[in-house]
Amino acid sequence: MSANPQWDVSRALGVARLFHLVCGVRDACVTPFLTLYLRQLGLAAPWVGILMGTKHLIAAFWGPFCAFLAKNYQKRRVLLMGSLLGSAGASLLLVLVPPLDKDLRSGSCNASDGATPTAPPPGAALTGTFASNQPPGAPSPASKSSPRTVEASGVGKGPAGSVHEPSGHPPGHAVGSVEGARTTSLAVHPVTSGVKAPSRQGAFKVGGTALPLLAGGTALGSPANWSAAEGHARALGLSSEGLRWTFFLSLGSMVFWELLTAPLEQVADDSLYEYLDCVDAADRYRSLWIWRLLGMSTGACGIAALAGRLECSLVTNGPRGVLHFYGYSLVSTLALLVSIAFPVPTCRRREPSYKTVKALSLVAGDPRLTLLALTVFLIGAATSTVQNFLFWHMKDRGSSELVMGFSVALGWLGEIVVHPFRATLLRKLTRVGTVGLGLGCLAGQLLYYAFLWNWWSVLPAQTLSAISSGALGWAVKASVEHLASPGMERPLSAMFQGHFYGGGSSLGSFAGGFVVMSFSLAVLYQACCVGLLLWLALFLSVQRTLPQEQRINYSKLLVVEASDTSDSEQGTERDWLVKAMREEHSG
């Protein structure tokens, strides 16, 4: 078997590292910036939440199903190459979706989007003034076609139709739609900016680039200005034909794209693990995730830098951000070439079917696993709010895409730096203590995000991702492997990462968009912080009431070969059993 080039482990690991690196670059080209692009199309927070929730839901259930089929029918390489090729083309469908503003061009290229932003001076603002002479109670003829002017001024008492915006957002950044029908050249209103409410007839409907929010946390054109029923009807109704067209085209494109993309990661992981397991080298599989994070860090910073420098010259029309999709398709093509040499096992091992059902029964039958599954579900819901809307928050503070890319890369690199201390941390704090520490750090991050005051202020909080994402993930994985029955470690870990975490991300995306619309991003992050702290207290309390269980990893006992056992060696075997029990108890 060792003479067969099929089992060249060093070559297989080299190809796998390159594949993970390239796929990390590929994912980071679009995934962190996707909601920012949807905002440029003109979709408000609720519709972006629906799109992202659908994406997470497909990934949570469609990916494992395709991996199961590919394994049973021995079509893993075909699925790998088909997923890469199909997703490279499907990602470009979103570029074809028309934005709400038909006249939208890359007008913000003349602004500071591609340059390093500077903090707006205290009190500075841009005021968009409604050109209307009608009294507040009368219908405005400007609602049909009247222009608007944008003028710079300091903060002060503007007219009844004034809209205040931080100076970090230049005019022409994006466009809003008034009363679901007319298009104006007014700059986009930040999701968290201070906005003075206009009169009722001048209220914005969902159909602007992002539903503007008042300084106090209420949406412009929200139930704060109308009755609750009328406000929600106006805010949620797809009455504008352009909005309906943009939303459903975006939904169809994202569903088709995710159906092609979702199977890739799990099929590649299962294929590589089984390949290494066939030659007793599965222990070398654990360190490959570092290459994906390195690729993601490089991709997020690289594509943001390229977009800032080249997009204005290469993309003459359409919303900002299309260069991210071109980069995604290009890197997908490179990953397709690498996948030709990706290790795929040819040996088939007899394994029981329906491992997912068995893993689910384990979760339902063990209170520790049940509590851990609920914890992972809530973590997914909380982190989805960061993934979906943190860049909106930073954009409203004047941040450039390069700073956004660097901020997420800082968190990923932090996970890599802290990883050598994994064993020490788990030993000192125990698995339960490390989960508690991770939940506390995540709650602290969310509370910090609620009070961002400038574009660079997000960077210190990103260093906590090493604990809130890295250490928390290690503790959950170690707990799952400890509580799983022999042979169920990988299926159970896949269920926690895919179904529970992905399901939580889906629900968090669906709910988060409507919370942003009804209140504000700050309220969303504060609510998530409070929810995590309450669950942390409940998690630690319930853990103390659960009976202490002592488990033995019987797979360790298999090291003693049956041919070596004899009556004279009973004392040695007894010592081995005691040692295994002590290690499990101390772990």
TrEMBL record:
Membrane disposition: Multi-pass membrane protein
Keywords: Membrane, Transmembrane, Transmembrane helix
Compartments where located: Membrane
Transmembrane segments: 44-66, 78-97, 289-308, 328-348, 369-390, 402-421, 433-452, 523-542
Residue intervals of the Major facilitator superfamily associated domain: 28-527
Pfam short name (any one): MFS_1_like
GO cellular component, one term: membrane
Listed Gene3D superfamilies: MFS general substrate transporter like domains (1.20.1250.20)
Span list, region Disordered: 106-177
Coiled coil: none
Primary localisation category: membrane
Family: Belongs to the major facilitator superfamily. MFSD6 family.
PANTHER family per record: MAJOR FACILITATOR SUPERFAMILY DOMAIN-CONTAINING PROTEIN 6-LIKE
Protein name: Major facilitator superfamily domain containing 6 like
